[in-house]
Every structure is written in C-alpha cells, then in structure tokens.
From TrEMBL:
The lineage of its organism: Eukaryota, Fungi, Dikarya, Ascomycota, Pezizomycotina. Belongs to the short-chain dehydrogenases/reductases (SDR) family. Coiled coil: none annotated. GO terms for molecular function: oxidoreductase activity. This is NAD(P)-binding protein. Pfam families: adh_short_C2 (PF13561). InterPro entries: NAD(P)-bd_dom_sf (IPR036291), Sc_DH/Rdtase_CS (IPR020904), SDR_fam (IPR002347). Keywords: NADP, Oxidoreductase. It comes from Massarina eburnea CBS 473.64.
Length: 219
C-alpha cells in the first residue's frame, strides 16, 4: 500500500495491521512514495520484492489528484501536477512492475466517470482519466501475449477525501443521475469490482473500462 501525505501514514499502517490480523496468511507492507516523481515506482517495486519475493501478481493504480477550477485559471503546472500522478504514475508503475509480473498478471487502473462526461471545472482531471483509459487499452494489447490482463474501473462519486474537492452542485447532479438508490458509492462498491478483476475468473476480460457508478454511465 502506497501513500504520500504524512497524515495518511497512520491510516495505512492501521490497514496493514488489520490485514495481518485476518490471520489467513495475508500480509501488507506500507510504502511512502510520491508518485509525481519518476523515482517512486522503482522504490515501490523494490520494497515489494524485498518483502514478498521476485514475483508480483496484481497492480492497482489508484493514486490520483484532482485540482478543480476553470480552464481560465488552470496553469501549465496544474496540468503537470495532474498528469504526472494520474497518467505518468500508472505508466511508470506498470513499466516497473512488468519485469516481475507473473502470468496471469492483473493490472487495474482506477478511472472516473469524468473521463467520458464533461463536468464544469474538471476538464484537466477528466482529460487525465481519458488518457488513463486509452493507456489501459494500449497496455492490454501489449501485455496480453504474456498472459496478463489490463482493465480500468470507472468509478462514480464515492465518499472519500477527493469528493470534498468536487463542487457541491456537481455532486448533486451526479447523485440525481445515479439510478441505483441515488446515493454515493462506497469504497466497498468499487473494491468488489477491483477484487473480481484481480481474480482468475476475470481471465477473458481485458482492455475494458468497467463502469462502477450505480448506472450513472451506461457505456
Ligand atoms: N471519490 C470519488 O468520488 C472518485 C470518483 C471517481 C474516481 N475516483 C478515483 O478513485 C481513486 C481513489 O481516489 P479517492 O476518492 O480515494 O481520493 P483521495 O481520498 O483523494 O485519495 C487519493 C489517494 O491517492 C494518493 N496520492 C495522491 N497523490 C499521490 C502521490 N503524488 N503519490 C502517491 N500517492 C498519491 C493519496 O495518498 P495520500 O492519502 O497519502 O495523500 C490517496 O491515497 C482515484 O484514482 C480517483 O481519481 C474517485
């Protein structure tokens, strides 16, 4: 598990302890790394192979940033800050993991309904998720011969810290347009889909973007 903000350290350590406490052989390690830097992926992979051995089975590219605002206020630095984490991060993580990936490997990229829907104030973030979905298809084509699958999960609104950065009027529109119970998704709603895509039973699915948003987007 990777985090970057010092304030997230205790929460990450807590999840790692809870995973060990399951007593079913599962173990987790916590790595602090800044995925906006090009060095982070090698640091994460080294820590992982040191702890668990040479092979890696599953990579979930979840980290992302969202800097809301009008395009008139957006700067080149905002663009770089967004794309460095949301697009270059998954690209370099994949590059670092692939030499260790044991077939049938699984790569799952966390996208957003914003990739395919225009939201006022979220153009740069949306563009980064669109790029991530394209990257998913390209990687699926490239890595399939080795027996790996690469998919994206396009999340609808979920109650996390990130949602606090989405303007409230957009959140209200999103809830109205979510057919299933007109509610926010939960972390578990998304994790279930990621879990299935990580499982052997998803073996014939690759290059797909699975919409997990209570029907918000029917792709
Ligand atoms: N919440 C939603 O409504 C929603 C909707 C659609 C898609 N998504 C997607 O779901 C994924 C998870 O987002 P979330 O809602 O859980 O957002 P969040 O609460 O803001 O969490 C973002 C995560 O990314 C990590 N991160 C950010 N910048 C990083 C960096 N430079 N290096 C390493 N880690 C970094 C954060 O680590 P720290 O905690 O250490 O900062 C945090 O764990 C993202 O890909 C997001 O785009 C979320």
């Amino acid at each position: 598990m990777v985090y970057t903000s010092p304030k997230s350290g205790p929460a990450a350590e807590d999840i790692a302890s809870r995973i060990s406490a399951l007593n079913n052989g599962s173990q987790a390690i916590v790595v602090q790394a800044d995925l906006s830097t090009v060095e982070a992926p090698d640091k994460i992979v080294s820590a992982t192979t040191e702890a668990f051995g040479e092979h890696i089975d599953i990579l979930v590219n979840n980290a992302a940033v969202l800097l809301p605002g009008s395009i008139l206020d957006a700067t080149a630095n905002d663009y770089a800050a967004t794309f460095d984490v949301n697009v270059r991060g998954p690209l370099l993580m994949t590059k670092a993991v692939v030499p260790h990936l044991r077939a049938p490997g699984r790569i799952i990229n966390i996208s957003s309904i914003a990739a395919r829907t225009g939201f006022d104030g979220l153009a740069v973030y949306s563009a980064s998720k669109g790029a991530l979905e394209s990257l998913t298809r390209g990687l699926a084509a490239e890595l399939g011969a080795a027996g790996h699958t690469v998919n994206a999960v396009s999340s609808g609104p979920v109650k996390t810290d990130m949602l606090a950065d989405v303007p409230d009027k957009l959140v209200q529109i999103q809830l109205q347009r979510t057919p299933v119970e007109h509610r926010h998704g939960t972390v578990d709603d998304i994790a279930q889909v990621v879990g299935w895509l990580s499982d052997e039973s998803s073996r014939w699915i690759s290059g797909q973007t699975i919409a997990a948003g209570g029907g918000y987007q029917m792709l």
